[in-house]
Amino acid sequence: MLCSQNVPDESVWGKSRGLDPALPPYPLVRHLLDAAAMALHLWDVYLADNQRMCVAEGMGLAGELDRARALVGLCAGLHDIGKLSGFQFCSPRAAQFLSSGLAVSSQQMATVRAGHDVAGMTATAEVLEVLGYEDDGEMRATARVAEIIGGHHGRFHRLDDGVWKAFLGDAAWAGQRAAHATAVYDALGAPAAPGAFKAPAAVLVTGVVILADWLVSQESYLKKRQLKLEPSLTEHFRRSQADAVALLREAGLTPVDLKRRDFAEAYGIVGAPNPLQQSVMDELPAAAGSGRHGGVMLVTAAPGDGKSETALEAERILSNIFGTYGYAFLLPTMATSDQMYNRVARTLRNQSGEDAGLTLVHSMAWLSSAYADEGLAREAVVTCDGDEAPAGRGRQEADMRPGRWLRGSKRPLLAQFAVGTIDQALMAVLPVRHNALRMLALSNKTFIVDEAHAYDPYMQVLLGRLLNWLGFYGVPVVLLSATLPGSVSDRLIKEYLQGAGHKSTALKRRTFPAPYPGWLYVDGETGSCTQMSRARQVEQARMRSLRLRVDVERVVHGDKGGVANRIAVIKRLLEPVATRFGGTALVVCNTVAEAQETYRQLSEEIDCRSHEEGGDVQLLHARFPGDVREERTAEVTAGLGRNGPRPARRIVVATQVVEQSLDLDADIVISDLAPLSLLLQRAGRCWRHEEHWQKHGYPDGIGRPEWADEPRLVVLDPLSGGGRMPVQWGEVYSEHLLGKTSRKLAEIERAGIAIPGDVQELVEAAHGDSEDFAWNAPGSREAKNWAEHKGKETAERSMAALCAVRRARQIAELHDLHDMEGEEDEWEVSTRLGADSVRLLCAYAQEDGLLTFDVEGTLPLPEATTEGRMPSAAVRQVMRRTIPVRADWFRGAEPESFAPPTSWAEHPMLGDLRVLRQPINRGKAQAVKVGDKAMRLDQDLGLVRE
């Protein structure tokens, strides 16, 4: 056993870069004590009941929360113990302050380069032995602590991948490691070793360590402490504990208790809750019981039935039962996330939650107008000093890592309330850096997934894997959908229950059918299943009952077809709107190009004014610059929303962007053929608010036009009558699903669709797991489409299973969470399959060579410094004008032709952009040849590719 004779040598530095150079660097032992103090406060305030219970049980300390708390503090207090190594010499300025007894080893130790995280992992066993901890083989508590220390930079390492002994130094250095560890150990009350340390519990502890480290590493805080050090370590630790309260609060991470309001006041909704919502308020508390290990809830109802408010009511109940704080509300797209963010913000304000941490969580969230420019001015965080990064790490690692996690007062999933894309949550089960921090963030709040039907098989597997981990942690989960096949909901529920400890063999014999409309709750501990009461289900169905008229129009795409030409059919259908009768119509197209052409032709015939000029015909799709798309989405939502004012005449031509979470109501919906579940989503924008308006009055007192005497969906079907799928649709949708949908529409066209009564049956008919197939003509196109569809589904599920981390109870070593070659970071993996995308900036090359944002040449592109730096406002100005496009559009093109300006090359965001330099000729922008297509940005149509 090592002998610890020394007190900590405070010449050993922990933080240096960014601090006052006139003072000695910040001592390592004091930074370790800061982190330990913050970890204790996180345990007390930030961690939810389910997390504390899971960590304690994972340490074999069930019922001994105080012991578990101290051990979490110890892990945080030892996180940088590896800096007592050759790391001390990676900053010559800081190293000059080392005492002579340690500095004498500089030549030998400085010849080896390694990360201090790995050095700490290597030294842990010796250090813990000094504290009286011994690895008792099977339980491997000491080894688990080593894994946590090695993973505090966000990536776990194999225990065998240690550092050279020379890097750790001689006996003097070993003695100092022991002295530093003892100082932390004593401050925490000498916690005894745990009897066990399960891997999933250690993942949460790692998240706490990372968060504690980052919070006490803020530059402003370190400068303040550096200026005046307390005379003793005891006093220092006491001060650190006191400071932790303000640091957490100022970071926006201290949970806030909302003031409960009645339903209408809380959600800003006129009238009483509907039967679905009322049943959750009345029946869910008994279903969830006293609450020991979470549960999963599925809410199924037609679009417009108030599922979002239902989920928030369920969250209030479940969080109260299980002791979680707030919620993560996840959606399929950035556009739907932006919309939901504003709704949640209003809800929090209505419940006195202005001080609660609320974040918008997606890759471009900081560009949303919901976040002011000040949100980009983040607090500097001293994460690493000197140059210890291995060769080959690029600019993104150095420049981006702090901004991804601590962006000033804005924190993504760590906040008490988070709204964003599902991708941000799925990163937790992919082998990326800081997935442990994401897991910590997700497991202390209720997890809500909206539009659960909207994810392909690849994402479904990732979502199931995440639910497995959340089931282990006892996190309450709420899944929302209007069109989710029973086979998919079954798989997701069973994944959650497996994580909670139920055997897969027993689950195979069970199914979890959800009522439609209604809800289903499955208890995590017992597996017991409770459904919404039949009486309330009938009441909800009756209240929202309507019969949707469904018409199928056979169409021919392109210039041919005569009266069956697609554009001619659309014009005929819109004739009542275009004439003096007016009204509102939504035309949903399957591709951006078809939406642009449809809009152009309708505008020419109905209203030649552009969107910007206030024309009656509007266009919305994903290929507008970000700022323009945000403005157009707001305009479309205002015009077709619940509260009005309602335009006398409005035709919105759009793509799939209107399918999900946009609160629109049209008198008629016209849609290209799409899989049946998506058609039902599109139809959900038809007469969406009729029941509400019948009760409370139409906006401005003006009802629907005379021609709109019933809700009507018109499907433009190119497959009807033996037609073929348009070539331009490419791989947008499975031809097998389109064929099934076309045949089903032919069956129901005259009868229409009873909503909600027919919805689930139709979804199962088109999207269920049935393997039935008529093999009368095995070589037919139909058989080929079926085989391709099933093959693609199987391939996507297999790909996801290979990419995702293992299920929670299958993890043996923490390195299993990063068990892939290379160092995967967030921008190097995909939560979605399909073509890779890049962001395109459409700029204008003036005749004098100047690149500008505008045709007129008055707004030049900003220039970065020689170090690649640029003011945040300028970065925002650029990125808000970018458009996500397929990367393969640029395949074969000269990279230099579309490269960003030279000064942007080293910038972590701007350096990866593609720039479309549209030449200006006599004041007009010209298209640019990209491969075999020409591309241009049209102010009214968006990005045109033809």
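the 2nd protein, sequnce then structure:
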Amino acid sequence: MELTLQQPLENKSEQLSFQARHIGPSSNEIQQMLEFLGCSTLDELINKTVPQGIRLSGSLKLPEAKTEYAALATLKEIASKNQVFRSFIGMGYYDCITPPVIQRNILENPGWYTAYTPYQPEIAQGRLEALLNFQTMIIDLTGLEIANASLLDEATAAAEAMSMSYGVCKSKANSYFVSQDCHPQTIDVLQTRANPLGIKIVVGDHQTFDFSEPIFGAILQYPATDGTIHDYRAFVEKAHAEGALVTVAADPLSLTLLTPPGEFGADIAIGSTQRFGIPLGYGGPHAAYFATKEEYKRQVPGRIVGVSKDVRGKPALRLALQTREQHIRREKATSNICTAQVLLAVMAGMYAVYHGSSGLRKIAENIHQMTVRLAEGLKQLGYSILNESFFDTLHVNLGERSLEEIKAACEAQRINIRIFNSSSIGISLDETTTEKDLIDLWKIFSGKNDLPFTLEELVSQPPLSPSPFLPLIRTTSYLTHPIFNNYHSETELLRYLHRLETKDLSLTTSMIPLGSCTMKLNATSELMPVSWAEFAKIHPFAPQSQTRGYKILFQQLEEWLAEITGFAGISLQPNAGSQGEYAGLLAIRRYHESRGEGHRDVCLIPQSAHGTNPASAVMCGMKVVGVACDSEGNIDLDNLKAKAEKHGKELSALMVTYPSTHGVFEEQIQEICAVIHANGAQVYMDGANMNAQVGLCRPGDIGADVCHLNLHKTFCIPHGGGGPGMGPIGVASHLVPFLPGHVVLGTGDWELGIGNKKEISQRLGAVSAAPWGSASILVISWMYIAMMGADGLTEATKVAILNANYIARKLEGYYPVLYKGKNNLVAHECILDLRSLKKSASIEIDDIAKRLMDYGFHAPTVSWPVAGTIMVEPTESESKEELDRFCDALIAIRQEIAEIESGKMDIRDNVLKNAPHTAESLIVDEWKHPYSREQAAYPAPWTREHKFWPSVGRIDAAFGDRNFVCSCLPMDVY
């Protein structure tokens, strides 16, 4: 039988177009929604919504859109230009083995990577438990009392430790001691963070530092960057006698063999869990950890998962101590950290669950024994080892041997080592190291193929126990909880992971309409390249000759983002939106200093701003002055002018979000920017709402001088349950010289950011541990832009605005839409006002949020930016059918509230007050509520077809804060 095609398929056909896969509504659905809004075309809607004065006059100049297949093929060709060498560089980054069961079922599983930060804990118990495992692992390994749920990377965790020490130390010292044995990227980030805060960094030798200069804190590396294992006990005692807090940056795998920091007096321990099964990824993303004493629990940066209970007394988890959140504390926040590295922390925690304490110890012992053998062989070859103690890293004196000879021999063997200087190098081993690797290394250093010894001769004697090279042997147990001892077979771990996954509502279940969060499609084709070895297995400090593929990727992505934003330069280094804010404000600060106006330190911030904005400004040494908003939710222009004129000579910047956090395009945005510029200051635009701008207008054209982009929102990097993210910044030409640099790569033969041919001596230091932040996930945004093209990106923005207006119009008869722009239209999100319901029916906003779970939905953003409201952002990826389901759920809930208002339903015992309803709550023998079990659990037709069950009832957050526990409970509690 001959098969013939009636119509040949072409790459430009709608069937092969990624745009049609990414945008949820069909063309027919788009037309139906437009008719509902009284518009004929999408362009008519956009013309009524977006101010004409800021509209782009033409299309974005981007490459033509590619199909998924073509984009993957192009990216594969780019990836092939990277060379994957065996890495022995160390410096806090190690090759490792990601257990396939973890790679396939967490890293590559949308049930895990499309979830959001667990603000609604009843439908997030799975990842909360996984994070509790991570915290327990860190507490056990470090010997400290509490740990958070991860931070961005080791260097920024060190900076957070410095800031916390500065805040809690009772002395008036403003100097911070940094051991010269810390990793250089950590020292770089610490110096960047310290400068605007007026903190003096004292880099020195901990063995000779005499404390004559008062310090409020100190940080030590354990093991040191050159591999040495120092005994820090005497230093810690002296530091404590001076009233200083001591932070130890510790390799967590080494802590399976070495005395933990908590046992020799450390107040804080930080580090990276990258080697716990997380790929190198050219620098990230990786999960850092932060552990400390319980007395500092309210000063800990980031988030802590804590144990509480639900209404029926069942143990339940939630984010503890929420009052520390910068969204609430604003300029009084202890940190601007808004996200973490949840997906990577889950992986690291599960790595420990899979291997258990004995498995981790065996891995560590094998690495150490390999290192001992390597050292013995090098000594027989005539080399001296400069560090007498070590875990996995050797500092080798080259003696008479030429460094260039060693480098050439390494390249011939496709091996990378660390170069300390012209006479010494470093070699760090990891769990992937084999006996063949040792032989290859010996051959490099012997300069011959024939070695004067055999491996068998070196291993003929059993290793000494305890090892003479480990001076501080661990004697305490760790990972004794059953969670780390029950899942060592793949079958058991697979089922455990699946059990946790089914407890969480992700985008695999339903839309997540969180305002200001942009929970759009994270396409499979965008995620696939993250796991490619050409991107995943490269050390962040690998020679640049081996990373030409990454160079092409960065250059293209920077050019595309510059075109989309209208800026002259892009830095890809900030690895979170909060870091982007921080880097952007530092660039502004450095710009003023370069002009002799370093006294400019006032930052104007509207009352409606993201909570991270004032926190970031304070971190940059700025004074925050609030700007009022008018009754329509817009910035009060008169108030802005008055504040700008009052602080004119001290004015540094305005931080503004566009469209506003109230969900409208402010008509006066260009005038707002002009007012700031007229007073000698700069405009920082928060890019949280960039999903309403792409292809329609550009921050640089509007008048912004700098803007950060949330690639984990607008450009499709998944939220991962609370991280990873990326927050690159775009800047106008005059700010390009002040983009972040990096001490390890410098700025010599590879420029950091496009458009920076100018003088770069005034660059910032590093703001992240790696030069390009979480480099491996940049492939996701590259794929998205490559597959959408200019027309697709613009269409996506239009549909995002359409979907938001459709929801606002459909629900406004039931819930007032708080703010609207011109022509009674909203931008890409809308705020629904629920405040009257408290008076009419005693219904709180949480009651509606929890009742939505019974309908199978995650709540929108609650009580932000206005208390008593919900902010809804549907994105362009949701179909009309899904939008209608969500609206029908909220309409049905409004009818349930009406029954309370009329007296038909009890004001205290009703479906909202008792929500969410678990399966367990329905199978009680005697049902005592005045509504049926069916009404409780199956309130809508679609819930009968597919029911998502919350695993716990409503959680008592206050109980958890009063009884603070942030590690695994005994199994019998469950």
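The CA atoms of residues 599 and 625 lie 16 Å apart. The longest helix spans residues 342-380.
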